[in-house]
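Limitations
The structure tokens in this dataset are predictions for the assembled complex, not deposited experimental models. Users should treat interface geometry with appropriate caution, especially where small molecules or nucleic acid strands are included. An illustrative entry is reproduced here so readers can see what is and is not provided.
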Amino acid sequence: MASRPSLTAQEIEQQLDNFLDVEFSFLKTAGPATILAELERQEQEYIISWVQRVASTNIQLAYQFITQAVDALDSMDKRIIEAWALHAMDTYDQTGLYKALEVIRNVHNFVQLSHERTAGAVFEEEVGVLAHFAHGLSGRKLKLAEADITYTDTETIYLPPLLARLPTPQQNFLLYKAFVALLWAQTRFGTFRAKLSDQLQQHSEPENFLALFQSLETLRLEACLARELPGLFRDMQTLKTSLAQNDLPAAYLPLAKQLSQPDTTAADVLRLTCEHFGKLQPLPPLCYQTNLQIEEVEACMAKRIETEKARMRVNLAKMLEEMQKENRAFEQREHKFDIKKQPDPTAPEGFQIELTLDDQPIAPPEEVRALSNSIIQDLGDIPDEYLVPAGDGEYDPRLFEDNKPDPDDVWSGTYHEEGAFLYNEWDYRRQHYRKNWCAVREVKITPVYDDFVNSTLHKYSGLVKHLRKTFEAMRDEDRLLKRQVYGDGVDIDALVEALADSHDGSEMSDRLFTRMHRVERNIAVVFMVDMSGSTKGWINEAERESLILLAETLETLGDRYAIYGFSGMARKRCEIYRIKEFDEPYNDEIKARISGIEPKDYTRMGFAIRHLSHILNEVEARTRILITLSDGKPDDYDNYRGDYGIEDTRRALLEARRDGIHPYCITIDREARDYLPHLYGPAAYTVINEVRQLPLKVSDIYRRLTT
Amino acid sequence: MTARVLKPEEYFIEKEPYYEPIGDEIEVFEAAYRQKLPVLLKGPTGCGKTRFMEHMAWRLKKPLITVSCHDDLTASDLVGRYLVKGGETTWVDGPLASAVRAGGICYLDEIVEARKDTMVVIHPLADDRRVLPVEKLGELLEAPDDFCLAISYNPGYQSVLKDLKQSTRQRFVALEFDYPGPELETNIIVKETGINHDIASKLVKFAHMTRNLKGSGLEEGASTRLLVHAAKLITDDVSPVTACHSAIAQALTDDTEMLVAIKELSSSLF
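Predicted assembly:
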């Protein structure tokens, strides 16, 4: 087959003018068009289609893209060009045009970076494994985060975003692992128990002192790792050898020997540092050299030590209280907690503690055990004052409860995205996701205690009765199956017949038993209720009435269900209203919340589907259903309308289906037939013509859907 | 070689099963047995509950009848049922009924797995009446003094569906089992498999690492049973990292990321 002729410069110019809106942007496309005209048709089309996709994000960006892309086509393979364009668009989303243009212009830098990424290890990709790895090591659970310098503040391990120092990804991953292990060892083997900051203040050259301390401390920690994780230690040695960092200066050798004794502590290292300071040069940094951020460590530790003391004492008080509740005979006199140290050579401190109450050993709950371990890690011991149960009201509970940011405060606060769930959104023009585009928050609904529920039940009393009856019939009753091959009882009718048959000379059936059969309904359903401004009035009332009827009938059925409302105003303010969670019982509070559902802002649907799918996925059930009650097309303030909104919603529904969720939509939008089949598929929606019918229909639809 | 065929009530344990007591569970069990009290064994999987029962059956010289409960276990599976034989119906005792008749130890393993209605049939046996009503025969089986009922239960399953009802659990003397301390666990592995002490203690350390992961990605940490499996593989010349991967990591989870992480942990240790 002859290849199609290339497009002429004029044809290309026309297309580009169209994508780049030259009428308004006054960009000159004739130049790039002539260059493009020299390419093969296939390559022309490839670049033009990417120009179109980039132009949907920003026109300037697309213009820069054409001028670079032709050059790039020679030196890069298409996969990398695509990654480059997507990276530029992501950068635009996150930090704006200026940075994005830089990405486009620095194409060679990107190539370099992408080479590094293929040979290197990327934090984002490895963090899952590394986090599990860190949790598996003993002691306080450490979190992992990205930062430019590698250090730990004793609660979080900070690692660089990309490691490409070594030639292969495996080796670079090993480097990450070594970092994690070494920083873990700092917290586990008491590096921060040494009074380092006091010493540093006394010195005229604190940097050099710190560097020497670090050199020596690393030697000690390496020895600890050699004992604790010999396999990893071997790998670390190989890393050093490959970078020719294996040789210790002669002056260090006796010190290294001394520091490898199991009972050396950080205090010893500090002492040695003082002794040798000025005489010994710090070692050159190793490939897995970590940093010490003493100030951050101290701030973090000071805060933790205070709250842990409070939590320990409050927990001990709680334990006493529980024992008194369980055992009335437990006397009301003074009780004394104490700890006993059991020698244990495998623990870094050389002992295990055992909690005793009035000299009797007791088994502390998991939380107390974790707390005491963490305290020992900081202090090396549990001081006596920690073991005095807290008196009533001695501590402010806010001190030790995790204070989650209140979603309502976020808007008055500084940064929109803090504490929010972030979800991707599908951009159909870009044919790619916009990363972490929607900031979603779960918001409480203010319960309204009024007569709405009772009047609804009264209004539909006939229907409620009818619904209860039909739903009761759906409840799984045990069925006695007859004529089974095996079972609990003998089916006398079958037996008599079989005996008659055998007298007759014909073959005797072996189906002679009865068996109880139980069909379990194992359904979890989430109702996603449109709370956009357009539901104001009739629709809102119909929605609330439907929810009341549904809840009443679902209670008789016993299916697990949750109800959430959704609404939003632009991508940074996507809100999910908690009306009923899965494990909340249907009570007056829930009724009042249903009654308190009110129209809010716009209908952005993608994030709601994604968030609720996420919630549904955490529920164990054989069938998971997501039912949307809606009054119209997806629509939001910032371009989330028309095809964009529909395509993102469709994408979110596809993701849900891929996770095994059955989405269904009930709508009162009469034009819905135009777009719903595209979103939900031909059989997964119902259009209700009359708002008033909604309460009558919803329960009925649910019944049909689940039998 | 052919397998031995035994009736459940004739299953006497002849050789002493190896068991290391962690606390005073043997004394408590014996006292409960003398006082005719039923026993509930609590604890995570693979920490030695079943081994303990075998050991006690050996000690008390009683047949041990074990029923592993599953979610389709009905009351007649335990008590017995009529079968049709040559045009007549004949009654066949279930394991619970034969244990009562024979005066043996009936051990219902993982009792919460059984259907709720099944659990109720053990109630009259588990209080001071000590009778098993056999409805279909219209009989009451009174348990002899030698009979003992024991059930096991893993409180680690945090599903509401898999919780033991108060009316059931409040009939039993409860013994709590947990993984043994590091030293004891090392000894157990050495005794069971004959592996050298150094590798056994590393295996125990590895088990602790996986137990640290409980709740942050793993449902359960590695049990003593899994450590014994791994040790057996190692004594048969499998490399420790491979043994940990096949015998422990793969048994714990299917999550690829977790598997990689566990492999990293084991390769760090050995």
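Some entries come with short summary sentences. For this one: The first strand of chain A starts at residue 121 and ends at 122.
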